[in-house]
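Deliverable D5.2: sample structural annotation.
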Amino acid sequence: MNSKKRAQQLHQIARDYVTKGLGAGDFESIPYHENAVLRAPIHPEGSGTEMSGKAFIKANWWAPLPDLVESTELIETYVNEDLSAVTVELRCNIKAPACTLRIIDRFRINNEGLITSQENFFDPRDITSPGWRS
């Protein structure tokens, strides 16, 4: 695959993650590798612990999301120089407690177009401590 097509592939994976996966609540549309790893601010075993494996990610991180996410807004995607990773900036509107999370996700993508690792960056206080701004 040439560089232009690879860059387009990476951008599309990130856009689809936001719109089809997170936004539409469709886990199966996210091309996770079976051994993918994920780091996120909210994790059942603590934010310092990496989630490992597509099945674990689906059962422990993804499970509550379709009921929590109202909508998503894609802002921008960015591809690294060696075309091995893509980053997406988005807003995620949460149903309850009603809030908007400003999120950046970074994905490493293998040559087959599968996500091998993801790191999720956002301030979780609006969902873990509603009203903290007051």
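Annotation notes: Residues 3-122 form a domain with the Nuclear Transport Factor 2; Chain: A, fold (CATH 3.10.450.50). The mean pLDDT is 93.
The annotation will be released with the project's public dataset once the embargo ends.
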